[in-house]
Amino acid sequence: MTDFTRINGHCVPLDPQWPERRLIDILRHDLNLTGAKPGCRVGRCGACTVLVNGLPVPSCLVLSGKLKGLSVITIESMPTSSPVREALVSQGGFQCGYCTAGLVMSIEYWYSQDPRPPREAIEDLLVGHLCRCTGYAGIRRALDILF
Questions:
Q1: 3-77 CATH pick, 3.90.1150.10, 3.40.190.150, 3.10.20.30, 2.30.30.140
Q2: pLDDT 10s digits, 87-113
Q3: How far apart are the first and last CA of the chain?
């Protein structure tokens, strides 16, 4: 019997013979959803962040055997225009773009939860996201605009 999950609103079958496949590999290789990037593959860099049941999660840590019945949202199904994206673009919050999709997913989640978080909580938005290009200055400016 095949198990299913919902990815970007579409019902996707999961092969029960391969319960150890990582979500990042299913997204990229099976579904051609390449927005989430395979970075560290140990859940530390944030480049592969997607929303699983509404929460930001590194897709490199999610095994297909745990996906049954869950909902996954990737950057591909997010609106192309949003306050988060506009702030990042206007403030030069990315350069090579490798980390951007995961960062956008996390910031979109936090923005939807509390568009006016306490000032000290804003820096926590960057925890778990590594960016080698920007030095975080543009990202921080974008966060200042948003929050």
A1: 3.10.20.30
A2: 999 999 988 889 999 999 999 999 999
A3: 47
